[in-house]
Design brief:
single chain, alpha+beta, six-stranded mixed β-sheet, five-stranded mixed β-sheet, 23% helix, globular
Length: 203
């Protein structure tokens, strides 16, 4: 999962169409030949992102993940909230970092200045969000699963989760990527506005 992998970046664009499309196109990352694409479509390459969200495990398509890394929170920006993101340095650029726990009104994990996060590719061409980061509470794991392994699927319109389901006995959630990116970009814009006009942010 490297940000220099152009094919990965292109595949991430398909996540705009939802997990079903991203499931299939992410299989191209395995290097399978065209003759094997029929079988590949039956398998899904995912990444489990450990968070402290209550009673649910977060998964995303492998193609969305640019890098798992550690970043340093700028001094005074250890607070994250439902409406607030921090801007962190990653590969020479500033990337908005969010806590999904806080966005869901759950307790924010205890964090210090150095934190682990998943940097994801932005997929919406209409907003200036090439990358964004999600706070993690552990080490992610990538794997391939069968498409029919997802049981008791529920699709939610308008919420942060596009789909929840049972996978290997655990409740998992797939984020609505478009909604997540829109909310993260709103946080980024608010942060930049407050930094440009600090007196107005306290009004």
């Amino acid at each position: 999962m490297n940000s220099s992998d152009e094919s990965t970046h292109l595949l991430a664009d398909d996540a705009l169409k939802g997990m079903d499309t991203a499931y299939e196109v992410s299989q191209d990352l395995s290097g399978a030949q065209a003759a094997a694409q029929t079988k590949a479509a039956e398998r899904i390459r995912i990444v489990r992102l450990p968070t402290q969200i209550t009673q649910i495990e977060l998964i995303v398509p492998y193609a969305l993940v640019a890098e798992i890394t550690e970043v340093i929170l700028p001094e005074g920006e250890t607070h994250l909230s439902r409406l607030d993101a921090a801007l962190v340095e990653w590969r020479g650029q500033r990337v908005p970092l969010v806590s999904l726990e806080a966005m869901l009104n759950e307790p924010l994990p205890t964090i210090g200045q150095r934190i682990r996060c998943a940097v994801l590719y932005g997929t919406n061409p209409d907003i200036v969000l090439p990358y964004y980061a999600i706070l993690l509470s552990g080490v992610p794991r990538s794997e391939e699963v069968l498409a029919d392994s997802f049981k008791a699927k529920h699709f939610d319109e308008g919420g942060l989760w596009r789909m929840t389901a049972e996978l290997a006995g655990r409740r998992i959630a797939v984020p609505d990527i478009q909604l997540l990116e829109t909310r993260v970009d709103d946080m980024r814009l608010r942060f930049e506005r407050d930094m440009s006009h600090p007196s107005q942010s306290s009004l």
